[in-house]
Amino acid sequence: MRKLLAAVAVTALFAGPAFAEYPERPITVVVPFAAGGPTDTVTRLVAESMSKDLGQQVVVENAGGAGGTLGAGKVAQATPDGYTLLLHHIGMATSASLYRKLAYDPLNAFDYVGLVTDVPMILVAKPTFEPTDLKGVVDYVKANADKVNYANAGIGSASHLCGMLFMSAIKTKLTAVPYKGTGPALTDLMGGQVDVMCDQSTNVTNQIKEKKIKAYGTTTKTRIPALPDVPTGAEAGLPGFEVGIWHGLYAPKGTPKAAIDKLVPALQKALKDPVVVERFASLGTVPSSDADATPAALEAKLKSEIARWKPIIEAAGEYAD
């Protein structure tokens, strides 16, 4: 009740003409993961471009931990005045099933700004991994399930979700090796300490190009332009291996409509910024369209993804308290 009353008070305070000057000071975008990771990279590119349009600096703050739920919870409890935002990935949807207890309701604790990008995932392995193609990986993994491990950045991370999808697609359980972030996991993969990993193209494209790791297949319907030699899962004989790690921009519930109405066009403009488009392309992804960079599109995406991932997570039986 206290949160609701605070939201009503803030909305009333800023509903008048004075709020037309928004933003009057820097805006903070919370990334619920460590600095240097794929979501952090996406956020910093978009934030820099939005700063130019809004006339105020958009500052990125990393608040990692618990698969993104700590950072998301922090924003859910923030004053809904338009100066604290959240840029989160698909974990916003999966946390509803992965975590038995959440300090917030993913669907009802936030207002929506819009979708930012849908990043492809790629199944990769250490440079000395024996299989030469995805079919070989599947055969090898099934024959050596007790010996093969897969790295991820912890429960709720994109790499964890993609790993669950891969195991679901091949109907084989592997030993998970969780890390505190994608960076150390990728370092150990390149060093051969772990066998396989499934992560966002924004995080592994350069390492694939430099042949520091092996790439076996993408989770997309079509090949990634930045990696034209890497087949899709369907092309390589694994049609059920499809997922994109979509990212969305949120605000605390009760944020004044006047703020959202300025943030939406600023986001849309940033996603058409040539610098952002080019950098996204080099990382194997593309910005969301104007139609997707809207509150309605993000809300619809979140609802559909919660429904999609619930049975996958329940079947895997991997939960966090």
Automatic annotation (TrEMBL):
Keywords: Signal. This is Tripartite tricarboxylate transporter substrate binding protein BugD. Residues 1-20 form the signal peptide. Belongs to the UPF0065 (bug) family. SUPFAM superfamilies: Periplasmic binding protein-like II (SSF53850). The keyword Cytoplasm does not apply. It comes from the Bacteria.
